[in-house]
Amino acid sequence: MDKMPAWADAFLVPLISLILAALLSALVILAIGESPTEALKLMVEGALMRSAGWGYTLYYATNFIFTGLAVSVAFHARMFNIGGEGQATLGGLGVALVCLYLPWPHWSLALIGASLGAAAFGALWALIPAWLQAKRGSHIVITTIMFNFIAAALLNYVLVNLLKPAGAMDPASATFPDATHLPTFQQMFSTADNPLFRGAPANISFFLALIACVAVWLLIWRTRLGYEIRALGHSESAARYAGISPVRIIVIAMLISGGLSGLMAVNTTMGESERLLMNATEGAGFIGIAVALMGRNHPFGVLLAALLFGFLYQGGAELALWTSIPRELIVVIQALVILFTGALDNMVRMPLERLFLLLRRTPKGPAE
Amino acid sequence: MTLMQKFLGAAATLALTSGAALADPALIYDLGGKFDKSFNEAAFNGATKWAEETGGSFKDIELQSEAQREQALRRFAEAGFNPVVTTGFSMSTPIASVAADYPDTKFVTIDGYVDPAEHPNVLSILFAEHEGSYLVGMLAAMASKSGTVSFVGGMDIPLIRKFACGYAQGVKAVNPDATVISNMTGTTPAAWNDPVKGSELTKAQISQGSDVVFAAAGGTGLGVLQTAADEGILSIGVDSNQNYLFPGKVLTSMLKRVDVATAEAMAAGADLETGVKALGLAEDGVGYALDDNNASLISDDMKAAVEDAKAKIIAGEISVHDYSSDDSCPAISF
Amino acid sequence: MTDPVPAIELKGISKAFGPVQANKDISIRVMPGTIHGIIGENGAGKSTLMSILYGFYKADAGEVFISGKKTEIPDSQAAISAGIGMVFQHFKLVQNFTVLENVILGAEDGGLLRPSLAKARGTLKKLAEEYELSVDPDALVENLSVGHQQRVEILKALYRQADILILDEPTGVLTPAEADHLFRILDNLRAEGKTIILITHKLREIMEITDTVSVMRRGKMTATVKTSETSPEDLAELMVGRKVLLRVDKTPAKPGAKLLEVTDLHLWDENGVERLKGVSLDLRAGEVLGLAGVSGNGQSELLEVLGGYATATGSVRVNGKEIALSGRDCTGQARRAIGIGHVPEDRQHEGLILPYTAWENACFGYHRDPSYQSGILMNNAAIREDAKGKMERFDVRPPNPNLAARNFSGGNQQKIVLAREIERNPDILLIGQPTRGVDIGAIEFIHQQIIRLRDEGKAILLVSVELDEIFSLSDRIAVMFDGQIMGVRDAAKTDQRELGLMMAGITGDGTTDAAKAAQHG
To answer: Keywords assigned by UniProt (chain C) (predicted)?
Structure first.
């Protein structure tokens, strides 16, 4: 028996969580003597009322779509991949190697090459934890999070010792050749008399993310592999009965998950910075967990949740620009949203379920 | 979606009153944050001092992510802030890509370098850290009894090697047989804020015989100074005057007047002269600190020797090698 | 009438979960010193009713009287202090505690354990003598047999001075001999004046031990009768609401060729324990071989090996051809390809993916079949259509392929699994516990399907812990004990007693023990 309608589970629960988080954030802002309405106004204006704001919101959202999808795919196989950060870091390395060391005649070919490189490196980084989980039972949560640290250290080594141009101060690679620069939204949508997305980092990889959404949806709900991934996720004993190899599915699901995380680097490394930076992922791998949870592991939900978090990031930047709300507090606000939508899901769900049961039991129509 | 409508509704009901006083200066700190006890904080102090003295006001922001570098530059430029002062070499690349879009805005990159030929509205402020380091190196050699002095750097980048190289040259100028030990805290930005590692490195250097240590390591340096004070050897601070931290234990501080540079840029306002500005001993952009806290440590002879060298450097009679000019150092190997 | 005061009286108990009315206006009176049976199909509301009585749920309406006194039971503590003890189907014991520690758990006197333990030891000894409830008080629970664990549960209740004992499906996990012993204990308790409520779906037990019986159907109490005045047929009809055939009509089997030959099968589990110790048996076309035994004696492992998802050593021949028992070719897919269908013992954890829709489940295990594919995607429309047909032919209700499997009743879930496996037309069908948790109406249908398949010349290996079921379906019966086949009997030439002894490890003549049987093969 389902306790509440699907629409309530998919929309009402996150919405109420969000409102709770917003209320609590408002209290925090009040407590330091700023105006919550002014803050909200700033966030909305900065993130959604200008095309450049959208350019940032969508740029962040692109990252979150990839990492959110990555967490979702693994989650369907009941693997909790919290190594998105490390996989995206390695994806960045893949992008950089492809862009720096292969001659590309045109950005479109470079995009394909870099995507393959990013996905391959990300997948590779997920392969080892996956294999350890499937064959040795090492818990994937532990291994993936440890691999985040290894990835950071590895990138550090590669950047400082191998990729950093001589004399450069930054631990960063050289700038990629011009032919690999992806078209930004500004180049794609601006006209001379109507400048749009000016200076914003949103680029063509946003559409790559949308394609990834559709692809993941097809994979999970329309292919045999997806059928087997979900079957394993729901019941390993049943999967074994049906002749589905848990080892094979765990490894494949994690490869896909790692590949998706890695693809995030196409957006950050190739699309935005156009060189490989030390900390290009900036926590997007972890935000992906919240995005997947809030999006109910469905690509469409992930897309919506990623947009929301993109808004929060860009809105947070606007707050930092125009108010004296300290940087740490903006992180607190973002964390509150993650906490409510991700971790405290059941806090909202359970009373809501009870409410729905109550509504259903009372006779239909108003009493009077 | 509903949420979006809610937000939009809320926004629509509020009048659009955003906007700042035009031509105020703005200050963008690097990812280390405003209160890093070092470089960014020096800029903040300079800006605050300027604001207090002139009654002016400035806007500042701490960055959270790489993508915000350009964003902050653009938003400040669009809102009419002028000049936009930035700290840290990492800001030079974003400035180079933004500057052309806002020709009327002056950008300042402290410690960074942007080609003035390509971007006429950018002022790059560089410091002759090697010159100041040379002077404190001389003081270290003169104060040392063991003949071994040491250096703790933050992140291993050419800029910090430039400090170390100048320091070593100063030491060797006084005592050619002296040993200079040099250690870097790390290779990532985390090395700027790791006082524990700084303390460990200092202890290791003491065990190798060092009795004066120069820290050019941001927040990490606090651990170096603390340990030196605890272990009874002398230390040398950096950037700001850090003599007061452990009076009588800090030999001197290598001053790098980021605060002065910031305040001057802000004072110049929209009329700021752009180009490349190298601040050395001649311009008082670098130097060594002498105050009540270390007066007992610096004898008149020492002071005379250093002042003599300073004059000669300004006059061009002594040439201190700049590591970043050719990525090599005659006085020390890394 | 001058009735004595009932030990328990429920008046007008109602309880709803959302739109489902689990209990509707239920009233019962149970006299002290009697055994009262409550019988009903799965989901009839028996467990809900008992949970209300034990304080797990709060009734929406109705009253509870204990010994004539109106009593509120908001939680299980209140139930215990009102003198109610409950023995659950799944024991609530701490596995690595001793019997004594389990008994006093939650009923310690004061902060120090020692006095409580000493007192409990005395009480336990007395109870054991009084009721044939002997258990070693210092044994670890994890080392006890299931029957003994159940006794610990009963002791726990008695230690808490329960006058009223509720037992939920107590014989499901017991051998016939253990069940007999349990009934002797219950007899003794009744003689001492305790009141016992026995929840079961086994008509035979009701007839054997209860004084009165209440029948529940769809949340309502349909009848309460004296056991001596009713018959199994009447009770079955009251449970289902229509006439039910309790015995399966079947003609004698016409066994054909040997389809499955199992020789000297060994299996060690991940802890290194040998679960199959040289199992050999064969199965012919057109016969049902019943595999009897108390659960946990290797039947599940045997099914897993034959189904291709456990690895073993030994030899299995299908149609004379050796099949792989480990490695790449030992998969469920490979087994299905050579015509072995498998209705697993545990349909909720193996046979079905409960959150999957009925149509997704209807191809489960066969989902790589080319007819279900369309390019790189699955042909969901074809699978759905296929499932619809299967559900109609197997009378799955509701016949809605888009409903998640978890929303079907146990019987209908089982029908989905059966439809899937039978409609692939396998030569050999492995069936584990085909009617566990299935209501009587569906049992009848499932049994008919199994016999129909046999008559079509298929070979059927039936694993069941229900001896009644084994008897009514099998042509030959093999008994498993401790990973070995204790013997194979012709179904017509054996009886419950002989099989019961074999299930306890004693062969037909009553002299050979298990170890000897193993040596003889």
So the answer is: ATP-binding, Cell membrane, Membrane, Nucleotide-binding, Repeat, Sugar transport, Translocase, Transport
Q: Do B327 and A167 count as a contact with CB atoms less than 8 A apart?
A: yes
Q: Is C369's Cβ below 8 Å from some Cβ in A?
A: no
Do C51 and C150 sit in the same domain of this protein? yes
Assigned fold of B20-127+257-285:
Rossmann fold (3.40.50)
Give the pLDDT band (50/70/90) at residue C229.
Answer: very high
What is the ipTM score, two decimals? 0.84
Q: Tell the residue number behind the tokens 């490390």, with chain if given.
A: A86
Of A43, A48, A320, the CB nearest to B62: A320
Domain extent, residue C438, equals 258-349+425-520
CA distance A89 to A265: 7
Residue C339 and residue C204 share a domain:
no
**Contact assignment for C332 to A228 by CB distance below 8 Å:** no
Beta-carbon separation of A282 and B76 below 8 A: no
pLDDT of residue B172: 96
Band (pLDDT 50/70/90 cuts) for residue B140 is very high
> Which chain A residues are closer than 8 Å to B159 by Cβ?
169
Q: Examine residue C404 and state whether it is found in any structural domain, yes or no.
A: no
**Inter-residue long-range contacts of A2-10, CB under 8 Å, 24+ positions, other chains counted:** A2/C407, A3/A353, A3/A356, A3/A357, A3/C18, A4/A352, A4/A353, A4/A356, A4/A357, A5/A356, A8/A352, A8/A356, A9/A296, A9/A349, A10/A296, A10/A298, A10/A301
Per the CATH hierarchy, to which homologous superfamily does domain B130-255+299-326 belong? Response regulator (3.40.50.2300)
Interchain contact C21–A (C-beta under 8 A): no
CB contact at 8 A, A269 and A225 = no
> How many whole angstroms separate alpha carbon B120 and alpha carbon B114?
9
pLDDT tens digits, one per residue of B40-57: 888 999 999 999 999 999
Task: Give the phi and the psi of residue B153 in degrees, each rounded to 5.
Answer: -100, 160
B and C adjacent (3 or more CB pairs under 8 angstroms):
no
Q: Does A23 touch chain C (CB under 8 A)?
A: no
Same domain, C221 and C316: no
Amino acid, single-letter form, for residue A367:
A
Q: Is C491 helix (H, G, I), strand (E, B) or coil?
A: helix
Nearest by CB to C332, from A243, A357, A360: name it: A243
The residue in chain C having the minimum alpha-carbon distance to the alpha carbon of residue A240 is C309
Using CB atoms, list chains with 3+ pairs below 8 Å to chain A. Answer: B, C
If you count them, how many residues does chain C have? 521
Residues from chain A that touch B8, judged by Cβ atoms under 8 A, are: 44, 48
Contact C353 A234 (CB under 8 A): yes
Contact C349 A230 (CB under 8 A): no
Identical fold, B20-127+257-285 and B130-255+299-326 = yes
φ, ψ for residue C511 (rounded to 5)? -115, -35
- Nearest residue, CB atoms, A227 vs list C342, C344, C367: C367
Partners of C121 in the beta sheet?
none
Chains A and C touch (3+ CB pairs under 8 A): yes
Decide which of C197, C214, C240 is a domain's last residue.
C240
Q: What angle do CA C437, C439, C441 make, to 5 degrees?
A: 150
SS3 annotation, A49-95:
CCHHHHHHHHHHHHHHHHHHHHHHHHHHCCCCCCCHHHHHHHHHHHH
Domain ranges of chain B: 20-127+257-285, 130-255+299-326
- The nearest alpha carbon in chain C to A1 belongs to C407
Residue-wise pLDDT tens digits, C231-281: 888 888 888 887 777 677 888 888 999 999 999 999 998 888 899 999 999
CA B75 – CA B65 distance, rounded (Å): 15
Residues of C in contact with A243 (CB under 8 A): 308-309, 331-336, 365
The token pair that represents C414 in the structure block: 């089982």
What residue ranges in C287-381 does DSSP mark as E strands? 288-292, 313-318, 321-322, 340-343, 373-374, 377-378
